[in-house]
Write the structure tokens for this entry.
Amino acid sequence: MFGDGQSFTTKSLIELVDASRGISYGVVQRGNHFPGGVPLVRISDFGRNVFDPQDIVSVEPNISAQYRRTVLAGDELVVSIRGTVGRVAIVPAEAKGWNVAREVSVIPLLPHVSRPFLHAYMLSSFAQNFITNEVRAWLSVHKP
């Protein structure tokens, strides 16, 4: 499963990401719920590390269009980066065309990257500590 056990090739996360989209966070000011608009993924939609939206809010299409890099195609990873930091889920194909709120980051992986493996890795204690420390460091420089 993991090769000969002698050596592993490692790559940074950015090497596994679709460079045309990069890793981005979503809609900063969503406004009021816009019935019939573009559904918006919030942390509560994957709070148990599984994509499971219950109370969907939507934004005006023109607001979503301002955040094209985070419009979902399906099969990306989403990560919570504010409030409850480090929640991770795989976006299902049914969420194609949805967007994400600013507390959610989209990781558009390249086709050959194993989503289940990276999802599990990002939930490991090592990765969770890294995510938490990076968010804290970023926030100390970019006070909201």
